[in-house]
Structure formats: structure tokens, C-alpha cells
Amino acid sequence: MAKEMQVVGITVDPATQSPIVILRDAGNQHILPIWIGILEANAIAVGLEKVNLPRPMTHDLFKNVMDSLGIRLLRIEVTDIKDNTYFAAIHLEAGSEKIVVDSRPSDAIAIALRYGAPILVHEAVIEKAVRIDSSLTGADKDKWTELLEKMDPEDFSKYKM
Question: Which has the higher per-residue pLDDT, 157 or 140?
């Protein structure tokens, strides 16, 4: 089973200085942080802001090729997490053929944002991942409260949808 989530922002982990893309479900029950690279954060930010660059970047090129070939993006799914590495799949439709392509979540998210396509996260990922939700208590809640308090609100809201 998978839960639809939205990208609500990009922030920086104060401990590692790594960018984090923040996903949240519509019911505000689960918030899922995914640590990503700086270039991937930039690609996601460009997608969030719907920036038209003078030349296509990689994710724009991917979209242009798919559009030229008549391939539809149905959805992306964050499918698994193993040893703190997330896995994703891009679900495409070419005519009557369904195609699933392995992807890094950051690339899949950047492409989904360009299409306005659904972003789904498997429930097993939500359960296994470091996450923030309303049911957190004790040390986990304290860890996330501390992390979020250290984050600059300007950075978090800069790319908020």
C-alpha cells in the first residue's frame, strides 16, 4: 500500500549541511525527510518554483524526450529504504505499455514536479524511515523537535508549495 505525499519544502540538516526534501501526506499525519545532494535539491527547487531556464537541465530534458515520444508519467513511488538509502520507481505509459523505471527518489521527485504527477510513498518506507508524525513520543520526538528548531525557517519556507 502507498500513501500520496506532497513536497512541502527543502531545508538543510544543520548537523551534516546536507539538503533534505520534506514530503508530507494530505492529512498531515506523516512527514518524511529524505536526505539528498545539493544538485538534486536544486533540481527539485527549480521544479517547485516552476522556473523556466534558458536551456533545459537534465530533468527538463527527460521530460522533453518523454513528451516528444508520447510517453506519459503516471506517478512516482518511493518504494524502499535499505541502509539509509531510498529507492524509487517512475511509472510510465507508452501507448498501451506500462513501464517501470528504477530511480533515485530525488530524480523521480524532480521529474514528478515538472509534470504535476502524484508522489506515492510505500507504507513500509514510512514505517522504516526516520520520520516525523503525530504519534512520535520520547527520544524520537525530542530528536526531531531539536532538528526542526535548529533549522532556519526562511530556508524551509523558501520553496514551500
Answer: 140
